[in-house]
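User: Can you recover a sequence for this backbone? Please restate the input before giving your answer.

Assistant: Of course. Working from this structure:
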């Protein structure tokens, strides 16, 4: 089957080259690409990331790569000359070339009456916010999987959940957002840290998951480490009991609960950020913030 309007076969339309061009680290354009591609089932993009493109020479190398493997181009290039060179060449190649930030910048500039600075990579300036984020990442790594529980009061968020409920990757995402996140595994029969129940500042959140889904995740994990022994770790009845116990614990202490069964880490993080905003408002009302 062939699309007569584009000359592309069905196979070509389901698999294509995607060039992500940025004058910075490429995080923004990559995030946009992931969000867009998630809307298409059975479509596979062969991504080519071109980051820190800030000179004509670097842009020429990008164009060579695009000519060799034509496809969709998404870009975040502040420099008008480099942006124009990229768009002109894509026009010649008759391929889409989409500036993912220009419309947003234009709309905001029009509304507030202030022109954008035009500095490449401005979002990655080594300012106080940057170092605060680095500190949060270091904190989360040092307080992963029940480590250094005597310092939990210093956390912004504490996650509790059974093994393989995405506690660690969620903490990493939270720390990238500037929150100091710690996580504690719930293990049936093992006591949780005593100071957990006396915390004042941190937001404590419980993570739960469908038992069948959790069993599947744990089996996959054991296969990855070549562990074939029978264990209660993947026994469905033991897992169901574990999930029931965590739900009872979270309910007893009235901790917010997030079901991560069908949530991506990004979605879980966004939900936690919403809870945290409300938590901070509560602390401020009580004069504890």
């Amino acid at each position: 089957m062939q699309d007569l309007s584009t000359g592309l076969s069905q196979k070509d339309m389901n698999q294509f080259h995607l060039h992500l061009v940025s004058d910075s680290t490429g995080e923004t354009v990559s995030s946009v690409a992931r969000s867009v591609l998630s809307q298409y089932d059975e479509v596979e993009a062969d991504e080519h990331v071109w980051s820190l493109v800030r000179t004509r020479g670097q842009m020429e190398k990008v164009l060579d790569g695009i000519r060799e493997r034509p496809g969709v181009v998404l870009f975040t290039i502040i420099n008008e000359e480099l942006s124009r060179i990229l768009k002109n060449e894509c026009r010649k190649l008759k391929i889409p070339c989409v500036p993912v930030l220009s419309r947003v910048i234009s709309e905001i500039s029009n509304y507030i009456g202030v022109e954008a600075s035009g500095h490449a990579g401005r979002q990655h300036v080594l300012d106080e916010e940057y170092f605060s984020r680095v500190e949060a990442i270091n904190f989360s790594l040092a307080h992963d999987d029940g480590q250094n529980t005597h310092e939990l009061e210093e956390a912004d968020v504490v996650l509790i959940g059974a093994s393989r409920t995405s506690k660690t990757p969620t903490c990493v995402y939270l720390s990238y957002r500037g929150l100091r996140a710690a996580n504690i595994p719930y293990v049936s029969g093992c006591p949780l840290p005593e100071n957990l129940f006396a915390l004042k500042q941190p937001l404590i959140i419980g993570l739960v998951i469908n038992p069948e889904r959790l069993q599947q995740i744990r089996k996959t994990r054991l296969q990855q480490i070549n562990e074939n022994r029978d264990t209660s770790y993947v026994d469905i009845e033991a897992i169901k009991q574990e999930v029931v116990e965590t739900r009872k614990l979270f309910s007893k202490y009235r901790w917010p609960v997030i079901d991560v069964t069908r949530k991506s880490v990004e979605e879980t993080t966004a939900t936690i950020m919403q809870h945290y905003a409300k938590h901070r408002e509560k602390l401020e009302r009580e004069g504890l913030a």
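That completes the design. The radius of gyration is 24 Å.
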